[in-house]
Specification:
This protein is mostly helical and 490 residues long. It is built from 19 helices and two strands. 67% of the residues lie in helices and 2% in strands. Strands 1-2 form a two-stranded parallel sheet.
Length: 490
């Protein structure tokens, strides 16, 4: 079930909200938690009820292991063995469903073997709920968890706003909120904030990301024939689509949390305003960045064992972070590229050389765009084709219609083609308008306030109500378009 669907907005969400607050008022808070957990399981089962038992088995297993670790002597050999067992089973589960086909295909190609490759359907959200529970086990070993009852743990893992595509939750941030009695009473303020943030996220998704989506598909399905401008338009289109799609989902998730009086972590903080790659990863998919830092980079040694080891740890962390995103060499190379970026960034910082902010932003943004080409491309060959075009290795072709423009650039190896001969996206039957729209969106994400900053400026008055109501109404008109959230596949 998608957040941007009539079934969710007009059926599931009202029933979930009314049931939760009604049961809390007239029966008990415990039953309200049970209602929310059952609703979350129904939300997941709507996609494919066949994978609901897998989710249930994973939850029961991890809760049991976490409880056993909590009862064992602190950081004893037994607790360490239980932690190892829990992490191993989680990784085997994730590895089978997400990576078995990839590794078998790769083995067949590299070693000319003939292993049978089964057709495995990736269960929705498995990466997110596996990471969430793995972190819980590690924290149980560190003595940072409490003796949560199974129902509370079940809701923590399955809480429907975050279950399918994050944000990745930490138990200490969320579970204590399930025990606050005031959270079981309707809050007009939180409901208004939630509806506002949900509407803003929905607009980012259906009005911007879904509009750009066809532009991305055309470019990445025809990489061999792209020229300089077409390649950059395709790459920047995907850069914007991914941001508005995933940050829109995250905004909706946080908004849904507000409606239920639960504060979920912010997952994006204007990442395309970043002035360095380090800054970018503090702003992009924040909960994943924190997970990789706390449960992978720091345990590997972080920066505590010298500069060389620090760079090695960065590369390992980002390579595994790339592999987490998908079973493909493009994701691994993308992760390795960002690991290299981070090493260069830390090396530059040691030189203590100041860089003009505009230049720092341009370098960072271009580096991120280049990385997204690898992230989106169907394979390494397509990515190389597109990057060659972006770097001008296939020649530079620009739009133009006048003879003087041809004469002006002929001497520097730049070709001019009429607008109608360029394979560029169109907006209202205008290719130029589509380029203007892309430039405006880049300016927006680089200069304007993000949705959290906009939320802080919202006032509970008629003008805001009309504006947000109108925006929501426009979004509803676009819900009939075929759509999916990009991060559902990860």
């Amino acid at each position: 079930m998608l957040f941007n669907s009539f079934a969710f907005i007009f059926v599931f969400l009202p029933i979930a909200l009314i049931g939760f607050f009604g049961i809390a008022r007239f029966i008990s808070a415990k039953m309200a938690i049970a209602w929310l957990a059952i609703s979350s399981l129904a939300f997941y089962g709507y996609w494919s009820i066949a994978y609901l038992p897998l989710l249930g088995i994973s939850i029961v297993f991890n809760y049991t292991i976490g409880s056993l670790i909590g009862r064992a002597p602190f950081q004893s050999q037994r607790s360490k063995q239980l932690l190892g067992l829990g992490i191993t089973v989680n990784l085997l589960l994730l590895g089978y469903y997400k990576y078995a086909g990839f590794f078998l295909h790769s083995s067949n190609r590299l070693f000319n073997t003939d292993w049978f490759v089964p057709e495995i359907i990736l269960p929705l959200g498995i990466s997110f709920y596996t990471f969430t529970q793995t972190a819980y086990l590690v924290d149980a070993y560190r003595g940072e968890t409490k003796n949560y009852d199974f129902l509370t743990y079940l809701l923590f893992v399955t809480f429907f706003p975050h279950l399918i595509a994050g944000p990745i939750l930490h138990h200490s941030d969320v579970i204590p909120q399930f025990y606050r009695l005031r959270n079981f009473v309707v809050s007009q303020k939180n409901m208004a904030l939630g509806l506002t943030l949900f509407t803003l996220g929905l607009a980012k998704k259906v009005l911007i990301a879904d509009t750009i989506s066809p532009w991305v598909g055309v470019a990445f399905s025809n990489t061999a024939n792209l020229n300089f401008l077409e390649a950059w338009v395709g790459a920047i289109s995907y850069t914007l689509q991914l941001y508005f799609d995933f940050s829109g989902y995250s905004d909706m998730a946080v908004g849904l949390g507000f409606m239920l009086n639960i504060v979920l972590p912010i997952n994006f903080n204007s990442p395309y305003k970043a002035l360095s790659i380090t800054d970018f990863w503090r702003r992009w998919h924040i909960t994943l960045s924190n997970f990789l830092r706390d449960y992978l980079y720091i345990p590997l040694g972080g920066n505590r064992k010298g500069q060389v080891r620090r760079y090695v740890n960065l590369l390992i962390t980002m390579l595994l972070g790339g592999l987490w995103h998908g079973a493909g060499w493009t994701f691994i190379v993308w992760g390795g590229l960002h690991g290299l970026y981070l090493c260069i960034n830390h090396g530059w910082n040691k030189l203590n050389l100041a860089m003009p902010k505009l230049l720092a932003w341009v370098i960072t943004f271009v580096a991120v765009v280049i990385g997204w080409v690898l992230f989106r491309a169907h394979n390494i060959h397509d990515a190389i084709d597109m990057l060659r075009a972006m770097f001008g290795l296939k020649g530079i072709v620009l739009p133009g219609d006048r003879e003087w423009s041809v004469a002006l650039v002929n001497g520097v190896g730049i070709a001019i083609q009429p607008w109608n001969q360029l394979n560029l996206p169109e907006l209202n039957d205008s290719k130029m308008l589509s380029l203007i729209a892309l430039a405006a969106l880049v300016a927006w994400v680089a200069l304007l306030p993000n949705t959290q900053q906009m939320l802080a400026r919202v006032k509970p008055n008629r003008r805001w109500a009309i504006a947000l109501g109108g925006l929501g109404g426009v979004c509803l008109l676009y819900l009939n378009r075929v759509s999916e959230f990009l991060y559902f596949q990860f």
